[in-house]
Amino acid sequence: MAESKESNYKLSAVQTGSLVGQKAVDVKYADVAIQFMQEHDAETPLISPEQERKLNRKLLWRVLGLTFLINLIMYMDKATLSYSSISGFWEATGLNQNKYNNVNTVFYVGFIVGQVPGTYLIQRLPLSKLIAAICFFWSLVIFLHCAAFNYAGVIVLRFFLGFFEAASIPILTTTNGMFLSLHVRESTQPIFYASCMASPIPIGFISYGVLYSKASIGDWRVLNIIIGGLTFFLSIFVYFYYPNNPIEANFLSTEEKVWTIRKVHGTTHASIEQKHFKREHAIEAFKDPISYLICGFFLLQQLANNLTYQQNLLYEEMGGLNNLNSTLVSVAGAGFAVVWSVTACIFMVFFPNKTCFTIIWTTIPALVGSIAAVALPLSNSIGELAAITLASLSFGVGWICAFGLAQTTAGSSYTKRLVRNAMVLAAYSISNIISPQIWQSRNAPKYVPAWIVQIVLSFTIAPALIGVVWYILSVRNRVRSAELNEREKTGLIKDDEGNEIEVDIATLDLTDLEDKTFIYPL
């Protein structure tokens, strides 16, 4: 049996204010895991190496596996418009290239509008019920695409699809952060994002089969019915099996819950969950220059994001590829993207604390592919195919790593993490509102202005901003490490009776600027 330990969450025998210099907060503003840990921490032994391996496997399958599945289907929902465009949807609804661009823009208008209510609801509602509701409304909107018959109707549908999606990525990444240790979370971020880049594989094969069906109601309607149905069944599954937090996770034993919370507190120095919105932490998020550097990365990098929706059209305009073959090329490209994500994951497993560096080096294929796409003639179809694949399906690894960086560098504060999430997703939305508009039909078939924007802003300046983030946080880490006082790593929770609980400072729900013992993961 593993040895027992003294609890880090026990009631202290001192009165409020007697431990001078220690951070103290009221218990209602601390981590929601405090009460659970008070009851079970002392009686739970230290985890053995074998138990830790078993628990990590369970968390990866049950938590990361579930968030991966939701993200995969979410991106299949989003991609239905691209695949519908080659199966008669444009003709049925009166779309053309510029109207298609506008429809993609409106999706992100809905996405940015949804940030405020989404951020509020994440901190107020159980995450399982919220993500289940989002999945249900996704399915409803996808089904309604079957009834679309004009441009105005498509605009409305895409707005609401973006609106309902707004809170999904913060929910999924927040859930991963509640259950996974810092190293596991960072190293598996590319795997999580592979769900986005892998989405062309299942939807590509589904679309390929649908194009052969020649259905009387229209191939694009059949596609939307299939994808909408998958999303509806996902909403039912998620309602019953999505965990709100480790404390309420039915698939974990009491010991496993304690071990999970200990690992998260000890490695991420972040709270599990905090349902009180802290105004001062929100203000700090808006004042912190790191927030704006990361937002700048999203604003510039995501100018390239519409390329993933344009690739099927680009394949068609190259000539020599019909609808069926362009779909298969998309599937092959997605396979490359998954391999690239796994490569990044392996790198981060063996070289921990290299998130900033990973964001930079994983952008290189997109930069090279974009330059090649501009330089090569359209007659070089093999070269163009390779260039488009490199450019459109590799930079997503940097996107999700940057999103993780925005969270892990905010300290233990739940509010600051959520507010910064909203900030970076607002920047992401603004960029994606602009992105479709750089693909104007007058620039066909090479679209040189769009490629130049991506080369300069998305794949050169954007990763350079992450280099600036790394430099600033490295300087902060050196100063903090030199001045670190071990006593400052503990804090006080004050209950309603004036008693104090001496706890790890990570449970106080402090920001990175409030907690001077916080060392930034880089």
Structure report:
The protein has one domain: Growth Hormone, Chain: A (Up-down Bundle). The protein is mainly alpha-helical and 522 residues long. The protein contains 22 helices and four strands. It starts with 10 loop residues before the first strand and ends in an 18-residue tail after the last strand. It comes from Suhomyces tanzawaensis NRRL Y-17324.
In summary, what is this structure?
It is a multi-pass membrane protein. The chain has 22 helices and 4 strands. With 522 residues, it is mainly alpha-helical.
List strands and helices in order, with pairings.
Layout: E1 11-15, E2 24-26, H1 34-40, H2 49-84, H3 89-93, H4 97-113, H5 115-124, H6 127-144, H7 151-165, H8 168-179, H9 182-198, H10 200-213, H11 219-241, H12 254-268, H13 279-287, H14 289-301, H15 307-318, H16 323-350, H17 355-361, H18 364-375, H19 381-393, H20 396-408, H21 414-434, H22 448-483, E3 490-494, E4 499-504
Parallel strand pairs: 2-3
Antiparallel strand pairs: 1-4, 3-4
Helix content: 55-70%
Total number of helical segments? 22
Task: Indicate the low-confidence ranges by residue numbers.
Answer: 11-20
| Total count of domains | 1
Q: Note the main sheet.
A: 4 strands, mixed
Question: What key attributes describe this structure?
Answer:
522 residues; mainly alpha; Growth Hormone, Chain: A; 22 helices; 4 strands; 68% helix; MFS general substrate transporter; MFS; transport; MFS_trans_sf; membrane
